[in-house]
TrEMBL record:
It comes from Flavobacterium gawalongense. It is an enzyme of class 2 (transferase). GO terms for molecular function: purine-nucleoside phosphorylase activity; uridine phosphorylase activity. One of its GO terms (biological process) is purine nucleoside catabolic process. This is Uridine phosphorylase. GO terms for cellular component: cytosol.
């Protein structure tokens, strides 16, 4: 039996951080970072049956074209993803009354919709990026046993290419769900590696008043390539989502609307339109 100190429940039986019970979620889930973006998606729903929020975790479940879908904000960073993924999995794969894992496990379909800047000149603003791999520059996932789900070849190639300082921990690489990739892909999608940093400033090469360990890291990332796979963008969640999904038996895919291009120095003239188009595209694919 899983002890109450390990799986914490609220007095109403909901999981501690997300404030959700099993009946509150669909098996098709859209992640967004910003809680204010949840309703940018659910405004297109035919109906909303459930809504709650605790801290940065806002959840709405409803019906879109006959399909039951949950939209959830995760907040920022791999540490939040650790909370969200473990508690979502508990909702479907642990009996919360007996505190025992279920014999028959339920896989969730999880699609992250975000915005990002492109690192490559050939990925223009207002385009969409599908993350075929997540490259984790944080250490969160290394708390788990990940060798069976990680791509060690890409990891080693990245460490060598960047002369990575292993005192920061070894980067990890996890692939997206092939099932969701086939469901969502189209000519509108650019594909590549999404790098996930554990912070916004130093971990992403931003310098304010503090010097950083490797001032050249971003330029090294820009020209990294492994068997034609380049690093397309840099954010703070994708690799953690991919890693925990793979370990727990769920399907995950990360999509980004590109609103800036660092290589060309351009920014979208209408970034909200790009996001709305990605939302509409994703909902349409999920509802079929």
């Amino acid at each position: 039996m899983i002890q109450s100190s390990e799986l914490i429940l609220n007095p109403d039986g909901s999981v501690y951080h997300l404030n959700l019970r099993p009946e509150h979620i669909a098996h098709d889930i859209i992640f967004v970072g910003d809680q204010n973006r949840v309703e940018k998606i659910t405004q297109f729903f035919d109906s909303i049956e459930f809504s709650t929020q605790k801290r940065e975790f806002k959840t709405q479940t409803g019906i879109f074209k006959g399909k039951r879908i949950t939209v959830m904000s995760t907040g920022i960073g791999p540490d939040n993803i650790d909370i969200v993924m473990n508690e979502l999995d508990a909702l479907v794969n642990i009996d919360l009354k007996t505190r025992q894992p279920k014999e028959n496990l339920t896989p969730l379909n999880i699609i992250r919709i975000g915005t990002s800047g492109s690192l490559q000149a050939d990925i223009p603003v207002d385009s969409f990026v599908m993350s075929t791999f997540g490259l984790g520059l944080d250490n969160m996932l290394r708390s788990y046993l990940i060798d069976e789900v990680s791509n060690i070849e890409i990891e080693d190639a990245f460490v060598k290419h960047t002369n990575w300082d292993l005192r920061k921990g070894k980067p990890y690489v996890i692939s997206c769900s092939e099932k969701l990739e086939k469901m969502i892909e189209s000519d509108k999608m650019h594909k590549g590696i999404t790098a996930t940093a554990g912070g916004f400033y130093g971990p992403q090469g931003r310098v304010l008043r503090l010097n950083i360990q490797d001032e050249a890291l971003n330029s090294k990332m820009d020209n990294f390539s492994f068997e034609g796979n380049k690093i397309t963008n840099l954010e703070m969640e994708t690799a953690a989502i991919y890693g925990l999904s793979a370990l727990l038996g769920h399907h995950a895919l990360s999509l980004n609307a590109i609103i800036a291009n660092r290589a060309s120095g351009t920014f979208s003239e209408d970034p909200y339109k790009a996001v709305d188009e990605l939302i509409a595209y994703t909902l349409d694919k999920l509802s079929k």
